[in-house]
Amino acid sequence: MSENHLKIDRRIVRSRYALREALLALMADKPFQAISITEIVEHAGYNRGTFYANYENKEALLDEITTELLDKLLQSFRAPYEHVEVFNVSELPAHAVTIFNHIYEHSNIYTILMKNDVLPNMKEKMLHVLKQISMAELLFPTDDIDRELLATYSMSAVLGLVWHWIETGFKHPPAYMQEQLVKIIHLYPNIADAARTGKPL
């Protein structure tokens, strides 16, 4: 790769980062729907041409931010079992739960989303991706329980804790939330013992 090409790549990365940060800063003060592209570029220190060279519209910019966030959320969700053949939820140690570390690491973004008009859509996306991954990778050998309903119930409960934690301004440290989640899981040993995972076929 030529030096000139590297410089162009760096400029693209720099401009995209600036536009993302500008949008988040604006969303901290006003609804997403009320933000204009002109406001975004002025806040970022660029022009509209730079914006449209990278994004079709402000929705595409927001989608890039939330997609990256959801990818990292999934990585944190998978962390306890991604390197094992069989995973028993009832044996889950608190330190293996990294979803709260992820949320805390990106607390500024989650806090902004919590207070913005995009929150319902973000909540829906988070539930969808976690439900899909749990149905695909967690095995629930319980014939009399609907897999989708169980996944919806379980992930809604986890996300309920997550959003409550964000809403209360991260009242407790991540380690405390990890411990509490594991204790709550252990209150229901029959479900926990039934939840096992292996790599998808």
Automatic annotation (TrEMBL):
Annotated InterPro entries: Homeodomain-like_sf, HTH-type_Tx_Regulator, HTH_TetR, TetR_C_Firmicutes
Keyword Nucleus: no
Domain HTH tetR-type: 13-73
Molecular function in Gene Ontology: DNA binding
Gene3D superfamilies xref list: Tetracycline Repressor, domain 2
Residue ranges: DNA binding: 36-55
One Pfam family per UniProt: TetR_C_8
UniProt entry keywords in alphabetical sequence: DNA-binding
This protein's name: Transcriptional regulator, TetR family
Species: Paenibacillus algorifonticola
